[in-house]
Specification:
Blueprint: H1 3-17, H2 20-23, E1 55-61, E2 64-71, E3 74-81, H3 94-102, E4 104-109, H4 126-139, E5 146-151, H5 154-164, E6 169-175, H6 185-204, H7 209-219, H8 221-229, E7 239-244, H9 253-268, E8 273-278, H10 285-288, H11 290-303
Parallel strand pairs: 3-4, 3-5, 5-6, 6-7, 7-8
Antiparallel strand pairs: 1-2, 2-4
Helix pairs in contact: 1-6, 3-11, 4-5, 6-7, 6-8
InterPro entries: AB_hydrolase_1, AB_hydrolase_fold, AB_hydrolase_sf
Protein name: Pimeloyl-ACP methyl ester carboxylesterase
Organism: Asanoa ishikariensis
């Protein structure tokens, strides 16, 4: 393997399993100050006359504050969950259009340690992320007809969330998402080896919220993904799986094929699953092919 290819694999592995914005050296987004939490009303049964602006709602989970951005509308409630290291601002261009086209309640949020949400000490834990989302939706009054839209690492949150809440989740659109079939023992070992040097370098840097998040995400990667490889998607929850042609591994044909094979395997493993290919797109399908993502979300919303 050439030095150039090794470097490329390290970068793409980080983009897949660690906070992508941190790896790229981006600064945290300047979000507006959190507003005080208030009593929440259940979602409206009818669509607003015109798209409304989103409102920042801070919810309390075990003494921590989590930021949820809510645009009112009817059910299904469409929950947009960004990939590793990305916060709710990842969806800032897509969410208003989705609200206008569907009239649905739109929810974006910052997972712990990202955006306006408080940090959670220790290694990143997908089960804690699931509990946070459950608590947030409950406090927002969302108790039925959730449509999950999950990009990259958020696919792991979606999988465990749907398993724990099959009556709450009515459908999902998984956008180049981390899916269980991809994380074989061999692939986990390759990813851990590829990201190791960058994680060690991060530990030497000044302690910032961004660096702490990167290190936390990497800390338990191996054991967490051995567990994730065994996870299954509930057969009662329909899913559209969108896979990119370039994938996170553009430049490594072997890994590209493994990623796309995993998406195909997942799509074939249960009923009511559809595989859609985002031709010409990088891993960032919501950025490269936003209309495709909108179309698939609207198609799934129409089935619920």
């Amino acid at each position: 393997m050439t030095a150039k290819l090794r470097s490329r694999r390290r970068s793409i592995a980080l983009a897949l399993v660690l906070p992508a914005a941190l790896v790229a050296g981006l600064t945290a987004c300047g979000n507006s100050p959190p507003s005080a939490p208030g009593p929440q009303a259940p979602p409206s049964a009818s669509a607003p006359a015109s798209p409304a602006a989103s409102t920042l709602k801070m919810v309390n989970v075990d003494g921590r504050r989590l930021a949820f951005h809510v645009t009112p509308g009817h059910l299904p409630a469409i929950v947009l969950d960004a990939g590793g290291g990305e916060d709710s601002s990842y969806w800032q261009r897509l969410a208003p259009k989705l609200s206008q086209d569907t009239g649905s309640m739109i929810i974006t949020y910052d997972r712990a340690g990202l955006g306006n949400s408080d940090e959670l000490p220790g290694p990143w834990n997908v089960h804690s992320a699931v509990s946070d989302l459950e608590a947030g939706l409950r406090q927002l009054g969302v108790t039925q007809k959730v449509l999950l839209v999950s990009h990259s690492q958020a696919g792991e949150v979606a999988t465990y969330f749907a398993r724990a809440n099959p009556q709450l989740v009515s459908g999902a659109v998984l956008v180049d998402a981390n899916l269980p079939p991809f994380f074989t023992d061999q692939e986990i070992a390759r990813l851990v080896a590829a990201t190791g040097p960058q994680v060690e370098e991060a530990k030497k840097q000044p302690s910032t919220k961004e660096n702490r998040q990167l290190i936390a995400t990497a800390a338990n990667f191996g054991p967490a993904h051995h567990e994730y490889h065994q996870a299954t998607w509930p057969n009662t929850v329909p899913a559209i799986v969108i896979v990119s042609t370039k994938t996170p591994f553009d430049g490594s044909p072997e890994d590209v094929q493994r990623w796309r094979d995993a998406a195909a395997t997942f799509a074939k493993a249960g009923p009511d699953r559809e595989l859609v290919t985002a031709e010409g797109s990088s891993h960032d399908i919501p950025v490269d092919r936003p209309q495709l993502v909108l179309d698939q979300i609207e198609k799934m919303a129409g089935r619920i």
